[in-house]
Design a protein that fits this description.
globular, 7 helices, alpha/beta, single chain, eight-stranded mixed beta sheet, two-stranded antiparallel ribbon, Spore Coat Polysaccharide Biosynthesis Protein SpsA, Chain A
């Protein structure tokens, strides 16, 4: 299994002078994600997508011996799809902006892998997000409730013949370690209280 970290976004909603993934939470946020994948010791490789939107993040990753893959930086989905075309393996995809991610929650997510499914996205419920004071723009109705994407998926890229009309499966895991991603300055302010 390959651990793939999406680290090429602009982070425009944060309205920062610097790159979002370099925000400090004991260490740069991107390194929390990378280290949580490394600490699990189940990945044959850890790869991070970068783009011209994230040159300092790419430099930091390379200084920490993380292999990077350059994408155009058009958008999360476009960059992910481009990267998946170059991988022929089982992939755990994570957003680079999950500062509370740790080894234990990744291990729990990996147990939800089902070889019958090509693409499984991890969701949290809207009700859960509300209880921890976070909002998200990326929702889907699943299991008769409004849910939100966490930015984490398990994808068997070996079985992908086309990215068109790919059936997406869902698993709900209400856990703040995967629900808490940094999209706004308010999210970052809230992080300092955790």
């Amino acid at each position: 299994m390959i651990g793939l970290v999406m680290a090429g976004g602009k982070g425009i909603r944060m309205n920062l002078d610097d790159e979002k993934l370099l925000l400090q939470y004991k260490k740069p946020v991107i390194l929390h994600v990378i280290d949580s994948l490394k600490n699990l010791n189940c990945f044959s490789k850890i790869l991070a997508t970068t783009s011209s939107n994230s040159p300092k993040t790419k430099k930091l990753l390379q200084e920490n011996n993380v292999e990077t893959f350059d994408t155009p930086g058009i958008g999360y989905v476009e960059d992910l799809n481009l990267t998946l075309k170059t991988i022929n393996d089982l992939v755990l995809v994570s957003s680079g902006d999950l500062p509370l991610l740790d080894k234990a929650i990744i291990q729990k997510i990996v147990t939800h892998y089902n070889s019958q499914h090509i693409w499984t996205s991890i969701l949290v419920t809207n009700k859960f997000l509300t209880t921890i004071g976070i909002e998200s723009d990326y929702s889907v109705n699943f299991d008769n409730q409004k849910c939100h994407y966490t930015g984490i998926s398990i994808i068997n890229s070996e079985k992908i013949t086309s990215l068109e009309n790919l059936e997406e499966n869902f698993v709900i895991i209400n856990d703040k370690r995967i629900a808490f991603n940094l999209n706004t300055k308010q999210d970052y302010d809230l992080l300092s209280t955790t």
